[in-house]
UniProtKB/TrEMBL annotation:
Domain of life the protein comes from: Bacteria
Residues marked Interaction with tRNA (site): H126, Q331
Pfam families: tRNA_Me_trans, tRNA_Me_trans_C, tRNA_Me_trans_M
Subcellular location: Cytoplasm
One GO CC term on file: cytoplasm
Domain tRNA-specific 2-thiouridylase MnmA-like central: 204-269
One Gene Ontology biological process: tRNA wobble position uridine thiolation
Gene name tied to this protein: mnmA
Protein name (record): tRNA-specific 2-thiouridylase MnmA
Region described as Interaction with tRNA: 144-146
Main location: cytoplasm
Amino acid sequence: MRVLAAMSGGVDSAVAAARAVEAGHDVTGVHLALSRSPESDRTGARGCCTLEDARDARRAADVLDIPFYVWDLAERFEADVIDEFVGSYAQGRTPNPCVRCNERIKFAAVLDRALALGFDAVVTGHHARLDPDGTLRRSVDPAKDQSYVLGTLRPEQLAAARFPLGDSTKAQVRREAAERGLAVADKPDSHDICFISGGDTGGWLRDRLGSRPGPIVDADTGQTLGEHDGAFAFTVGQRRGLGLERPAPDGRPRYVLDISPVTSTVTVGSAEALDVWRLVADRAAWPHEGVVACEAQVRAHGGVVPARAQAHGDELVITLGSPVRGTAPGQAVVLYDGDRVLGAGHILATG
């Protein structure tokens, strides 16, 4: 099989490519240049897509003795991921850029180009499993499972994907990298939004959206507890960094409940007010009819809650068996049966 190995410069993608070579496939490595102005070096575990990452990917390809190319997708990444990220926050939503990147870059732009060039599949270092029938499952390493960020992929995208690491723990992957002589064996994982290398999402958004002052209002009393200079700097469920000028009347901590970009109002309230029992999502990947008993996950590394899901036209209505907190429009909801992904959608509304 002729496969394209997406090599980020990290340990996971390097070992995934190595396993594809060992399996006897005709492997070509490709590094995706996603930044218009890549930084020279990573700082600890912050960010990715730096010149250092590109060099690490090339060195890994040299060790594996496979052809290696760099594809410049910076313009596509900016339009499909970064611009949407900024626009979502400006509209009061909380997007997940990793989900969008997988949907629109790695398994749309890259996969489409790979198939057009005659490749049979794309290999990535995601920690997830694929059954022969195309069913997506969780990784055997729950701490590193990435099925959530892959949950919205369509069946035809999964059919041309290969995830060689799904049956291994991260510790096993690092040991294997060292045994193979890959210099990235001990390289830290990236934990931040790749295009915000400093980790200051609020400041990064402020630079692009400008200052938009408004009140911070208590949901119970309607009192103004403080002021802010941009609602986009807040996320539903946030407690710290609210900048309240006076405490709430009951003296209890306050959390962000709602963000209104039209009036630039941030509404805060008690923790209990964050409880969400119902989600409405689009049908990004939901082939089922009727009511389906399942488990719902609304964060990449969050827990699951029992749920019942049913499609209504283009929307997916999910009733939760126990509440989740801090859930907001824009996030993905992925539905499971045990470790098997049943489908997913992007949250449109909560209740």
